[in-house]
Design goal:
By secondary structure, this protein is an alpha/beta fold. Among the domains are: 33 residues; 105 residues, no CATH class; 30 residues, no CATH class; 41 residues, no CATH class. It is built from 12 helices and 10 strands. The strands form 2 sheets. Strands 7-1-4-3-2-6-5-8 form an 8-stranded mixed β-sheet, with no helix packed on it. It has a two-stranded antiparallel ribbon with strand order 9-10.
Length: 441
Amino acid sequence: MSRALRDHGRAVAALAGLIVVALAIGGYILSNQRFYLPAWVPVIGTDFYTVEAELQTAQAVAPGQGQSVTIAGVKVGEIGSVELEDGRAVVELKIQREYAPIHQDASILLRSRTALKDMYLSLDPGSETAGDIDDGGRIPVENTLPDVNPDEILASLDGDTRDYLRILLSSGAQALEGDSPAQLRQTLKRFAPTARDTERITAGLIKRRRNIANVVHNLQRLTNALGDEDTRLAEFVDSANANFAAIARQDESLRAALTLLPGTLDQTASTLTSVDALATDLGPALEELRPGARALGPSLRQTRPFLRTTTPVIRDELRPFAVDVQPTIRDLRSAAEDLAVVTPRLTKAVRVVNSLLNTVAFNPPGREEGFLFWGAWANHAGATLFGTQDAHGPVRRGLLITSCSSLGVLDQIAATTPSLNVLIQLLNAPQQSDVCPQAVP
């Protein structure tokens, strides 16, 4: 063997070189033909995560031509095969394992890189909350959109519209000759404010669309809930019918109430005007109260232990007491109704008494004194007059002042008229000789 190698060494070396060159060329060709070795081949093996996608049409999709699958513009795999199932194209996506998994709400757009229909699939992997698609799983046609060709758009137009479009394009070509593009550019610049306003209108319409969708969704939920409560809804309709019938029987009262409504509205308008002035003054006051309100937080937190302590008292003592006292309150209702009848008169009497007390308590300025001063003097004089009494009643105190000549007249009357002498003795008047010795002859 060694002798044969020595004899044919150059041929063996040339053959080995040809084999190496053939392997290099074959590897290069296979790499450009996207030939992948199985995952079990060490080092150079490739493992793919396979997902199928249903498309309405797979026009210009050519498996094995390197048409890629991208996520956010980054190539993550390629199209493996295309099959037809139930009138729909089923495209196999071979995604590199490092970009797996794809989620249940994933979506796919079939797009063209160039006008020559070099197609690729733009993949949105979806959200993790929707769950993962198993290896070999399928993305439904509801989550895919095919490429739209210009001829499909034109085919959806009627004949007149296509004729007008052809006239527009031919006329536009003639209109854009020479300096017309510059003039058109200046004209389009003038539409910039209109474009901004249109953008705002479009944003508002989009928001309106979302709101309408929310309303429809909420209305569906409400309808489903009402469908489950049809018996209660029927009872509600019957009750509403009875209520409306009762209201219809009170049409005269409603008319009378409506006649009073204009005056009420005028009064309400006047009140709101006054409240507006109050609100104007109230705003600064509330601003000044804000620091106090903020400082109130620690105080409220400090009252929490007190509230926790008083909660059992309220629950176990005050609430049972309130329940027990309700019969008594119901019994007092009739008395309260009678009291409500006399309350206006009682209020008037209290006002009169209040005015009288204010008058009595008034102490005028200067040397004059009020009624309370003389009331104290009268109280002292009354105690002096009526402070002494016996079995016959109070003894009135008094001081009688008379002249000596009057006492002499009493002595003469007592001496000459025996009948009056008894009364003079009851008077217990002193003798003239006792108090007026100089007047005695």
